[in-house]
């Protein structure tokens, strides 16, 4: 039987953002957290337009013209619907409820005399000195407008001091100004009253153009293609080339234009012309043009009852006693860490112990995203200062983290660490930390492998699995990966690790085939995969064929999934569900069973999603969990609760829609929080 067509990747990404938006509409989610989900949708959609939609536009130009145009129109239409629904949730559901709780966003008309006086003083003291309006004429062309910056377009009447009748002006708003300002208690007693910077400027626009009449105006914001293009084969110094590229990224090709709903057509048409955009790229929004900035309101609001209850990740005392050397503990067996339910601090402590240990000879680590402040990076710098051999593989092309990574690379090099940037044409996405220690007359290696980044902040927000081990196979393979990244030698055969771009894709396909073969033979046949995205056509093809063979397949896919489940005769044995909850699902778990025996199953943890880019354009690793007790723990914590989640889970339909499974069942994340009791 022919296999069905794959679902659209772009529409699958939008479907994920619709699931995030659904969180903002849930009555059982605290109000400020509902507002946070509104902000997350905006942040996600910014990246969608900056990266994915920009690539989609480029691909559409080179494909079948009619088919590409239809798909482009369908994706653009769905993006418009999603953003309209986002603002409806903000205006009709979230903000009215916040107002009832005494948290207000005051427009100019809502402010009383004392509040207007305070805002007026704030404008003249903090805002007006930084604004430079530009009237457009032949000697003042349309200015460069940076990606995602806040701006006003103003239509003016009358003439200026030089007799010019320039009718259009642009006001660029500096990024250093706060977008949300809380009014002091003396002018807003008994309330938590906020004003948006845009409202402050709007109320004083006439002061920026003395003697002129402000006839019309609008906020606007342009989203640009932000993919950082560097020809790695043609540069002598990748770091220098990327730093140069960071300055030009802000002015890439325009992709989307946002204006407020009240913007006159003549102004929006003028802006579309300036940015060379079609009408379909215009988004008229019923509210602030950048809801991401409302995170500042969430941070300033004093309302603990309107947030998630505090959760402090637990230190795994029974498995990793604080008063004992981590090296000594790992000599007894591997340790599995489940973040954010368990603390990330043991990973930091593992590195700090290595830095302070005089028997440690070398430390090697990969860095993809670590943030601008990182105790791990500070520890590596300290190790290099102490004279230890430190090698750090810094991925300079980690999107939107390039500048932070460049800065860390420069600091590491300044203290003598060996810094390498991986392999030309491939991003280093594997998460590895390797310590080599002298023990008696021999050397012993210890390693940490992870599904997530070495970032203590996001480790409190993302679900990930970390694996501390002294296993000789895993640590030898980890060392081989570092040797590959640092030198020009050939690839060594791995003892245990699967590695992209070499063996991971092929071996994953072989395991799916093995399960399919077991199903055809009437043996137990089971696949459970938890990934962030499933878009690789070859793996989808194999999963479909395994379903046809009778294998039972459960896929827990947080984001884009291009496989259409539940189709008779093709994917009827495949169930796809997505969990969107308090924490961002990020762990990757691959479970395969092809019989009834203890040796007829394997479970891998991985840094890679089931996407072509992860399999062929990145350095990735997957490692087996050989310890039966740890393997069962992964199943019990990372698959079973998610397959029975009746609160945060949604099940994918054959057409790509998602339906909520229930509202009164268990939440996998809440169950894990209760289990660890942080």
TrEMBL record:
SUPFAM superfamilies, A to Z: Phospholipase D/nuclease, PHP14-like, PPK N-terminal domain-like
Top-level taxon in the UniProt lineage: Bacteria
GO molecular function: ATP binding; metal ion binding; polyphosphate kinase activity
Catalytic activity: [phosphate](n) + ATP = [phosphate](n+1) + ADP
CDD domains named among the record's database cross-references: PLDc_PaPPK1_C1_like, PLDc_PaPPK1_C2_like
Residues the entry annotates as binding Mg(2+): 369, 399
Class of this enzyme: transferase
Keyword Glycosyltransferase: no
Keywords: ATP-binding, Kinase, Magnesium, Metal-binding, Nucleotide-binding, Phosphoprotein, Transferase
GO cellular component: polyphosphate kinase complex
Residues annotated as binding ATP: 44, 462, 558, 586
Domain Polyphosphate kinase middle: 115-297
Residue spans crossing the bilayer: none
Active site: 429 (phosphohistidine intermediate)
Keyword Hydrolase: no
Biological processes per GO annotation: polyphosphate biosynthetic process
Post-translational modifications: An intermediate of this reaction is the autophosphorylated ppk in which a phosphate is covalently linked to a histidine residue through a N-P bond.
Cofactors (names): Mg(2+)
Job of this protein: Catalyzes the reversible transfer of the terminal phosphate of ATP to form a long-chain polyphosphate (polyP).
NCBIfam families noted in UniProt: poly_P_kin, PRK05443.1-1, PRK05443.1-2, PRK05443.2-2
PANTHER family cross-referenced by the UniProt entry: POLYPHOSPHATE KINASE
UniProt-recorded name of the protein: Polyphosphate kinase
Organism: Piscinibacter aquaticus
């Amino acid at each position: 039987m022919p296999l069905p067509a794959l679902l659209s990747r772009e529409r699958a990404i939008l479907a994920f953002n619709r699931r995030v938006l659904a969180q903002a509409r849930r009555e059982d989610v605290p109000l400020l957290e509902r507002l946070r989900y509104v902000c997350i949708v905006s942040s996600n959609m910014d990246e969608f337009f900056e990266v994915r939609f920009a690539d989609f536009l480029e691909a559409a130009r080179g494909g079948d013209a009619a088919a590409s145009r239809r798909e482009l129109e369908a994706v653009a239409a769905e993006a418009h619907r999603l953003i309209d629904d986002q603002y409806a949730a903000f205006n009709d559901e979230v903000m009215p409820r916040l107002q009832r709780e005494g948290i207000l966003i005051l427009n100019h008309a809502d402010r009383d005399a004392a509040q207007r006086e305070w805002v007026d003083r704030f404008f003249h003291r903090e805002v007006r000195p930084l604004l430079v309006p530009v009237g457009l004429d032949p000697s003042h062309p349309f200015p460069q407008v940076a990606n995602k910056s806040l701006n006003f377009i103003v239509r003016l009447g009358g003439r200026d001091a030089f007799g010019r009748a320039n009718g259009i002006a642009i006001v660029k708003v500096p990024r250093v100004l706060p977008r949300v300002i809380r009014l002091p208690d003396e002018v807003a007693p008994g309330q938590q009253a906020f004003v948006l910077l845009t409202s402050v400027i709007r109320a004083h626009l006439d002061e920026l153009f003395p003697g002129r009449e402000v006839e019309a105006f609008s906020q606007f914001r342009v989203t640009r293609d932000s993919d950082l293009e560097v020809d790695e084969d043609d540069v002598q110094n990748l770091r220098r080339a990327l730093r140069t590229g960071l300055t030009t990224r802000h002015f890439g090709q325009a992709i989307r234009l946002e204006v407020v709903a009240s913007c006159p057509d003549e102004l929006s048409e003028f802006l579309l012309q300036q940015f060379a955009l079609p009408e379909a790229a215009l988004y008229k929004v019923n509210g602030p043009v950048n809801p991401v900035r409302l995170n500042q309101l969430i941070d300033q609001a004093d309302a603990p009852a309107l947030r998630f209850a505090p959760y402090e990740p637990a230190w795994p005392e029974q498995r990793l006693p604080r008063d004992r050397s981590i090296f000594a503990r790992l000599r007894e067996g591997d340790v599995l860490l489940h973040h954010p339910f368990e603390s990330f601090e043991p990973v930091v402590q593992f590195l700090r112990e290595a830095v302070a240990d005089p028997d440690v000879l070398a430390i090697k680590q990969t860095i993809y995203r670590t943030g601008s402040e990182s105790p791990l990076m500070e520890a590596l710098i300290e190790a290099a200062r102490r004279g230890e051999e430190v090698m750090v593989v810094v991925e300079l092309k980690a999107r939107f983290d390039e500048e932070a990574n460049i800065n860390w690379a420069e600091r590491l090099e300044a203290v003598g660490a060996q810094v390498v940037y991986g392999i030309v044409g491939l991003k280093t996405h594997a998460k590895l930390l390797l310590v080599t220690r002298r023990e008696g007359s021999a050397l012993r290696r210890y390693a940490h492998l992870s599904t997530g980044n070495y970032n203590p902040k996001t480790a409190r927000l993302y679900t990930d699995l970390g694996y501390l081990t002294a296993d000789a196979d895993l640590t030898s393979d980890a060392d081989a990966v570092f040797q590959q990244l640092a030198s020009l030698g050939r690839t060594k055969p791995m003892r245990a690790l699967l590695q992209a771009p070499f063996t991971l894709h092929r071996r994953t396909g072989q395991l799916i085939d093995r399960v399919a073969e077991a199903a055809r033979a009437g043996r137990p046949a089971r696949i459970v995969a938890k990934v962030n995205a499933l878009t690789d056509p070859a793996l989808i093809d194999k999963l479909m064929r395994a379903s046809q063979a009778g294998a039972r397949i459960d896929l827990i896919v947080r984001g884009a999934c291009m496989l259409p489940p539940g189709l008779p005769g093709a994917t009827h044995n495949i169930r796809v569900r997505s969990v969107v909850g308090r924490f961002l699902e990020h762990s990757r778990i691959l479970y395969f069973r092809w019989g009834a025996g203890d040796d007829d199953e394997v479970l891998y943890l991985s840094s890679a999603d089931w996407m072509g880019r992860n399999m062929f354009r990145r350095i990735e690793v997957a490692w087996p969990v050989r310890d039966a007790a740890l393997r069962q723990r992964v199943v019990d914590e990372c698959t079973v609760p998610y397959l029975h989640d009746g609160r945060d889970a949604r099940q994918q339909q054959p057409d790509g829609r998602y339906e909520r499974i229930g509202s009164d069942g268990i939440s996998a994340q809440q169950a894990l929080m209760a289990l660890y009791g942080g």
